[in-house]
Amino acid sequence: MSETHYRICPFCEATCGLELEVDGDRVTAVRGDDADVFSAGFICPKGPAIAELHADPDRLRQPLIKRDGRHVAASWDEAFAEIERRLLPIIAEHGRDSVGVYLGNPSVHNWSLALYGRVLIRALQTPHIFSASTVDQIPKQLASGLMFGSYATVAVPDIERTDYLLMLGANPFESNGSLWTVPDFPGKLRRLQQRGGTCVVIDPRRTRTAAAADRHLFIRPGTDALLLAAIAQAMFAENLVDRAALDGRVTGLAEVEAELVGFTPEAVSTICGIDAGEIRRLAREIAAAPRAAVYGRIGTCTQEFGTLASWLVDVINTVTGNVDRAGGVMFPLAPAFGQYGGPDATGVGRGVQTGRRHSRVRGAPEVMGEFPCACLAEEIETPGKGQIRALFTIAGNPVLSTPNGGRLDAALRKLDFMVSLDIYLNETARHADVILPGLSTLENSHYDTAFPSFGYRNAARYSPAVFAPPSDRPTEWQTLLRLTSIVSPEAHGASVEDLDDFVLATNLQRAVRPPSKAAGRTESDIRAALADRKGPERLLDLALRTGPYGDGFGADPDGLSLDKLLAHPHGVDLGELRPRIPEALRTPSGVIELAPQPLLEDLPRLRAALTRGNGEMVLVGRRNLRTNNSWMHNLPRLNRGRPLCTLQIHSDDAARLALRDGATALVSSRTGTVEVPVEVTDDIMPGVVSIPHGFGHDREGAVLSTARERPGANSNILADEMALDPLSGNAVLNGIPVTVRAA
Question: Can you give the pTM of this predicted structure?
Answer without folding.
Answer: 0.97
